[in-house]
Design brief:
With about 180 residues, the protein is an alpha/beta fold. It has helices at about 1-10, 30-40, 45-55, 60-70, 75-90, 105-115, 130-145, 155-175; strands spanning about 15-20, 40-45, 95-100, 120-125, 180. The structure holds adenosine-5'-diphosphate. Adenosine-5'-diphosphate (ADP) binds next to α3 and α4.
Length: about 180
Amino acid sequence: ACLIFVLQVRLVSPMFNIILFGPPGSGKGTQSEQLIAKYQLKHLSTGDLLRSEIATKTPLGLEAKNFMDKGQLVPDEVVIGMISSALDANPQVKGFLFDGFPRTEAQSEALDKLLQLKKTEIGVVLALQVSEEELKKRLISRGEVSGRSDDTEAVIVNRIKEYHAKTAPVAEYYKTTEKLIEV
Ligand code: ADP
C-alpha cells in the first residue's frame, strides 16, 4: 500500500518513468504486468525485445543469442540501440516501464542521456529483493515450463554471477540519486 501511495503521488508529473530492477528470477516480468496495467505505461523489456529479435532471426537477434545462451550480458551498444529506437517509436506515452534495463553502469548513463533528450527522467527505481536460494529455485522451475533456453542450471549460475558483477552496482548509482526503493 505504501508503494502504491508513493507511485500515485509521483505520477502527477506529465511523464513518469519507472525502472524495475532485480536479479534474474526476482519477478520483474510479473510485477511489470501489474504496473503497466495500473498506470498505462509502455513496457520495455530488453529480454523480451531480444527474444523477439531471435524469433524473427534478425542479425541483431543472432548476435545476441550467443551471449544469452551462455548467461552473459549482451553488449551495451546493442541494448542501448534497441532502447533508443523504442523511445523514438513511442512519442505519445504516459511513461515507460524499463524492465531488465539498465543492467550496467554504461547503460544507466546512456538512459539518462536519452531521457534528457526527451525532456524527461527516471521517477523511481523499484529494486526487487529476493534471496539467492529462492532465485535459483524459481528459475529452475520456470525452465521446466517456459521453454527458455537460458533457464538451465549452468546458465542460471552465470546469469546470477553477471548480475553481481555488473548489474548490482547500478543500484548503488540510483541510491545516490535517492530514487531507489527496495521492495
Ligand atoms: P532475467 O532477468 O531472468 O535474466 P531477461 O529476460 O531480463 O531475464 O534477460 C535474459 C537475457 O537477455 C540476459 O541473461 C542477457 O543475456 C540478455 N539481456 C536482457 N536485458 C539485457 C540488458 N539490459 N543488457 C544486456 N543483456 C541483456
